[in-house]
Design a protein that fits this description.
- The protein contains 9 helices and 7 strands.
- Helix 1 packs parallel to helix 2 and helix 7 packs parallel to helix 8.
- The chain folds into 2 domains: about 110 residues, Alpha-Beta Barrel (TIM Barrel), CATH 3.20.20; about 80 residues, TIM Barrel (Alpha-Beta Barrel), CATH 3.20.20.70.
- Strand 2, helix 2 and strand 3 form a beta-alpha-beta unit.
């Protein structure tokens, strides 16, 4: 369940609800004001072992308002709380060796993510991206934007090339919706859902996904 609240108290309240419906949750810290993030971490620290922490910059489709220097400092702060996973963009790690070194020294469990908000790359491009990202972590998230059903299929084909990596691969948008479900049957450890209003394009609610996955049983 993805949580994108704008205050510490709302984040705590929504996280409690989310963890009743799901084993894990994602907290989008970029929806909070910078000064609210330390308070939020303290409020939810007991649940962070079940939380994917994300601080997405605007250049990667996020809402973070501060500078990149401030964002790096906050990522390091979140790492100190030892969450289930800390989502850090592939592009961020690629250009910031000091951050990469720090996160390695703290043994932070990383989810290294890469998003394409305009298109779905070719199969060879996706395979290359998977190999590049796997140098940083075995927990990998690769997400594209689907303009056709073939785009979604291409994202799902990536599971046959994942090796020993924990891969989360699907497509955003209307054409990508089904890939958010099918990825669960191809090896994805989890998918991203909402409690109601979608946080990302094409996202299902947790209740919708539960209804669909029950059909298989």
């Amino acid at each position: 369940v993805s949580i994108a609240e704008t205050t510490p108290s709302k984040t705590k309240k929504t996280l409690k609800i989310a963890l009743l419906k799901s084993d894990y949750a994602e907290v989008r810290f970029d929806f909070l004001k910078i000064e609210q993030i330390p308070e939020t971490l303290e409020l939810i620290k007991k649940d962070l072992r079940k939380v994917v922490c994300t601080l997405r910059p605007k250049t990667e489709g996020g809402k973070f308002q501060g500078s990149e220097k401030e964002r790096i400092a906050i990522l390091k702060l979140i790492a100190e709380y030892n969450p289930f996973l800390l989502d850090v963009e592939f592009n961020t790690l690629k250009r910031n060796s000091a951050l990469t070194k720090y996160l390695k020294s703290t043994k932070t469990k990383l989810l290294v993510s890469w998003h394409d908000f305009k298109r779905t790359p070719s199969s060879s491009e996706l395979k290359k991206k998977l190999n590049q990202i796997s140098r940083f972590s075995t927990n990998i998230k690769i997400v594209s934007t689907a303009k056709t059903t073939d785009d979604s299929t291409r994202m799902l084909e990536l599971y046959s090339k994942k090796g020993k990596n924990n891969l989360i691969s699907f497509a955003m948008g209307d054409y990508g919706r089904i890939s958010r479900i099918l990825c669960l049957y191809l090896g994805s450890p989890y998918t991203y859902v909402s409690l109601g209003k979608a946080v990302a394009p094409g996202q299902f609610s947790v209740d919708e996904v539960k209804k669909i996955t029950k059909l298989k049983k």
